Amino acid sequence: MSKGLLISIEGPDGAGKTSVLKVLLPRLREVYPAQVITTREPGGVAIAEQIREVILDIDNTAMDAKTELLLYIAARRQHLVEKVLPELENGNMVIMDRFIDSSVAYQGAGRGLDQDDVAWLNNYATDGHKPDLTLLFDVDSETGLARIAANGEREVNRLDLEKLDMHQRVRQGYLDLAEAEPERIKRIDASQTLEEVVEDTWEIIKSYL
Ligand code: TYD
User: Fold this and answer.
1) Domains of the chain
2) Which residues pair with 177 in a beta bridge?
3) What residue spans of the chain are helical by DSSP H?
4) Measured between alpha carbons, how far is 174 from 15 in angstroms, rounded to an integer?
5) Phi then psi for 6, rounded to 5 degrees?
6) What residues in the chain have per-residue pLDDT under 70?
7) How many distinct helices (H) and strands (E) make up the chain?
8) Is the pTM above the cut of 0.90?
9) Handedness of CA 117, 122, 124, 130 (dihedral sign)
């Protein structure tokens, strides 16, 4: 077992997880006795960022769903061994913007790939590592997509361009995961105001620490 703490943040596109994290990071750093590191998937280290470019390129419309899954998982493996595990070994807290549950929700529920295959491949790539705590920012797909459209600063990626029904399947995939693993995955109602979402998230983290 590693000495640090691994927290993943998850949710459908437009749930606002990145904005919440920005507000909470200084608070976390104040209370946590070791370093608090944030990182993201796909990416986080140079090799995985290169894979990210390929996955999210809006011109790669020919990409097959299994190719997509394998690329996310390749990026995940590299990021985990090169960055995340060493930080945890040093006793630090690592906050990951997306991790294994994204595969299950997007490539499993969203793209319709076999859930057992997705789970097995993830397990293979991560050697069974799972987050200690997962914060699921849940928002309905219409609200999520409207937020993306309203956020001019965010660069549109290939998955954002998917139709509403794909986003709805992704959301349902996340809700099913939260139901299956209630101890690890905590659902937060992300349709509230940013302040309310921040406070709900803080309560969950505080009770966990
Ligand atoms: P990103 O710009 O990081 O979006 P967000 O701010 O919503 O995290 O793009 C990541 C996209 O990749 C996002 O649409 C979710 C998707 N994704 C998967 O489909 N599978 C995965 O395993 C991961 C990690 C992400």
Assistant:
1) 5-208 (3.40.50.300)
2) none
3) 17-31, 46-56, 65-79, 85-89, 100-102, 115-126, 141-150, 164-180, 194-208
4) 12
5) -110, 115
6) 1-2
7) 9, 5
8) yes
9) negative
**Ligand 1 pocket check for 42: Cβ under 6 Å:** yes
Q: Which amino acid is at 128?
A: G
159 lines ligand 1 (CB under 6 A): yes
Structure tokens at 193: 């105001």
CA of 159 to the centre of ligand 1 (A): 7
Averaged pLDDT score across all residues of the chain: 95
Mutate which of 98, 111, 156, 161 for ligand 1? The one with the most ligand atoms within 8 Å of its CB, which is 98
Under 8 Å between Cβ of 14 and 144: yes
Instruction: Specify the amino acid at residue 180.
Output: A
- 8 Å CB contact between 149 and 26: no
Separation of CA 43 and ligand 1 centre (Å): 10
Q: In sequence order, what are the residues at sequence separation of 6 or more whose Cβ sits closer than 8 angstroms to the Cβ of residue 130?
A: 6, 100, 184
Beta carbon of 19 within 6 Å of any ligand 1 atom: no
- Chain-centroid distance of CA 28 in Å reads 19
3-state secondary structure of 36: strand
Whole-number Cα distances in Å, 65 to 4, 69, 145? 34, 6, 22
